[in-house]
Design brief:
This protein has ten helices and 17 strands. By secondary structure, the protein is of the alpha/beta class. It has two domains: 179 residues, Quinone Oxidoreductase, Chain A, domain 1 (Alpha-Beta Complex); 126 residues, Rossmann fold, CATH 3.40.50.720. Helix 4 packs across helix 5 and helix 4 crosses helix 9. Its EC number is 1.1.1.1. It is an enzyme of class 1 (oxidoreductase). It catalyses: a primary alcohol + NAD(+) = an aldehyde + NADH + H(+); a secondary alcohol + NAD(+) = a ketone + NADH + H(+). It comes from Actinokineospora auranticolor.
């Protein structure tokens, strides 16, 4: 039986400081409705850090992480149609939903209580091969290399949903807190739509990149933007930034928190942070429609994807670099 290399979570927050373990194992087989993909690239997302460091509960012991998977179809399971061997597809965070609950029926499948996720409930892309449901595998836009396409599949999709959740008005003023893989794509989308973007982040290199990508200003994470904001998105998993972002909003402004995990939020002062109809919103996963919309936008409005490639055997190093803010843009594993 053919084998491949795969990284599995040894134990979240392992005391050795090495939560991943690599090994050779049989290549998985596609079940009904599935496709088997040869992994061409897999993005390294901050959610992977939350899974390996124990910030999120274990959904599957020893899971293969990775949910920004670019792959080539090498086999299909029974009942799969519209997909051919050789197709290049993308596998994102949302893997499956029940399709029957009231959330699914109203188009909010990201809130489905039965939703499952790539690299958390099922094996993901830190491997040479992976299996995914054909219904949740997305055709990718042309014009992007495999390394460039990988970050679109979570950083891009979640950033797109966060942008919509922020209720940014046409020509509005957007603040972005934190400037990593997702933020550097979202900023470009907002600028393309006519927004004025102000970036606030602790990393001087990220501030330089923000200005390169069209931001009107770039300051420190706790600084006040140069003008009141209509909308803001918090990408950094730092709850202490929530009061600062709310205080920077103009009347009627909205703050969207884009992360799946956030450190504790300090006490809020009602009049300073929420009064005058300021809103605080969370962002939970994505819908498959979000994925289709973002990938279509990326096809018609080319995005500059900043990515650093790591070999597959460097997965642990890529996670360490991400945790230490040593990654410019996105980190991507390439088998």
């Amino acid at each position: 039986m053919a084998e491949h290399l795969a990284w599995r979570v040894r134990a979240p927050g392992a005391p050795t400081g090495e939560p991943l373990v690599a090994g050779r194992e049989p290549v998985p087989e596609p079940g009904p409705g599935d496709v088997l993909l040869r992994v061409l690239a897999c993005g390294v997302c901050r959610t992977d850090l939350h899974i390996t460091e124990g910030d999120l509960p274990v959904h599957r012991s020893g899971v293969v992480p990775g949910h920004e998977v670019v792959g080539q179809v090498v086999a299909t399971g029974a009942g799969v149609s519209g997909v051919a061997v050789g197709d290049r597809l993308g596998v994102a965070w949302l893997r499956g939903v029940c399709g029957r609950c009231r959330y699914c029926l109203r188009g909010a499948e990201n809130l489905c209580p039965g939703s499952v996720y790539t690299g958390w409930d099922a094996d993901g892309g830190y491997a040479e091969y992976t299996v995914a449901p054909a219904a949740s595998a997305h055709p990718l836009p042309t014009g992007y290399t495999d390394v460039e396409a990988a970050p679109l599949l979570c950083a891009g999709i979640i950033g797109y949903r966060a942008l919509r959740r922020s209720a940014l008005p046409p020509g509005g003023r957007l603040g972005i807190y934190g400037f990593g893989a997702s933020a550097h794509l979202t900023a470009q989308l907002a600028v393309a739509e006519g927004a004025t973007v102000h970036v606030l982040t602790r990393d001087p290199r990220a501030r330089e990149l923000a200005l390169e990508l069209g931001a009107a200003s770039a300051g420190g994470a706790a600084e006040h933007p140069p003008e009141p904001l209509d909308s803001a998105i918090l990408f950094a998993p730092a709850g202490e930034l929530v009061p600062a972002a709310l205080a920077a909003l103009d009347r009627g402004g909205t703050l969207a928190v884009a992360g799946i995990h956030l450190s504790d939020i300090p006490p809020l002062d009602y009049r300073r942070h929420l009064f005058q109809e300021r809103q605080l919103r969370s962002v939970t996963a994505n819908t498959r429609a979000d994925a289709r919309d973002l990938l279509a936008l990326a096809g018609t409005h080319p995005l500059r994807v900043i990515a650093s490639a790591y070999p597959l055997d460097g997965a642990a190093r890529a996670l360490r670099d991400l945790a230490a803010d040593r990654v410019r843009g996105a980190a991507v594993l390439v088998p």
